[in-house]
Amino acid sequence: MTEQMVGFYTIVPEYILFKEAQGVMQIMDHQFVKHDDQVYHLLENKLDTYKYSESGLEFVSSMELERDCEYLSGDDSGMLYLSPEIYHLM
To answer: Total domain count for the chain?
Structure first.
């Protein structure tokens, strides 16, 4: 893995271990956001929170959402933004 420039940003890949194996059937729709020492993971209607450390990701909590979401983002203050699947809006 090497650094890559994307516009004015340098993308630096990092391999992050989970302390416990994560078994899921879905492999393509995962969304992650890291803020300070917290990592948030969105898959469909489940938002998991992990604590990030040098030794890996340690599970903190899980939240079931009212509907499936397809996009997760965050800002510098730690605020998370979730977007529902587009077909739920019609």
So the answer is: 1
**CA–CA distance, 28 with 69 (Å, rounded to integer):** 14
pTM of the complete model: 0.70
Q: What is the DSSP string of 7-30?
A: TTEEE------BSS----S--S--
Question: Which of 13, 66, 65 lies closest to 40, judged by CA?
Answer: 65
Which domain range does residue 18 map to?
Answer: 4-89
Q: For 85, how many CA atoms within 13 A lie in the half-sphere containing its CB?
A: 11
CA 76 – CA 53 distance, rounded (Å): 19
**Residue 75 tokens, joined:** 């800002």
Give the model confidence (pLDDT) of 28-54 as tens digits: 678 889 899 999 999 888 999 999 887
